[in-house]
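Changelog note: in this version the structure field was regenerated for every chain. One regenerated record is shown below for reference.
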Amino acid sequence: MTSWTESLLDRFISHADIAESHDIVIQAPADIVFAVAENFDLQSIPIVRAIFWLRAKLFRTRPPSRTWPSGLVAETMALGWSVLAYRPRRELVMGAVTQPWVGDVKFRPIPWDEFADFTEPDFVKIVWTLEAEPLNAGLTRFRTRTRVEATDDPARKKFRRYWRLFGLGIRLIRWSGNRAIRREAERRASAGISRQMELSKGRHQ
């Protein structure tokens, strides 16, 4: 599965200026983990809201609105991200082009078959993933990867300055999000096991 995702990432961004990978092992089936990740409300985490608030203050803009559809994938698509590749219940690759150093940041969707060739000056291309790798029936490695590639040197310099300021906060969002997804997936898996035990007990009474 990893080679499938890596080959896709190489297709969309082969020479990344920034490449990050964060993974965590979760005691839950891969189907549950992926469903939780797809629909997770990232802004339900206080520290994530605080980071978004701080960015808005530094750029003198408004904090993100909460009127978007609920769930990570739905919210990011409402912002302008698009699905570049998808394998149901296992892997998702999202992408957009943007200028994150601008206060009121906008994300522009690019069709999957045009993404790699996008070269409009003064932009960065960003892809990120959700991946649920089954280790066994009840154990999953969840991973999210991010790659960023600038379309020219001016954009690269602007992004590097931005990353020096906000890179730590972005990593903290990934770290916090992964652990929150683990808690919810393990809670759902535990609830499912308890329910199955109750049903089995009832059948044998």
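Spot check on this record: Residues 2-203 form a domain with the Alpha-D-Glucose-1,6-Bisphosphate; Chain A, domain 4 fold (CATH 3.30.530). The chain has one domain: 2-203.
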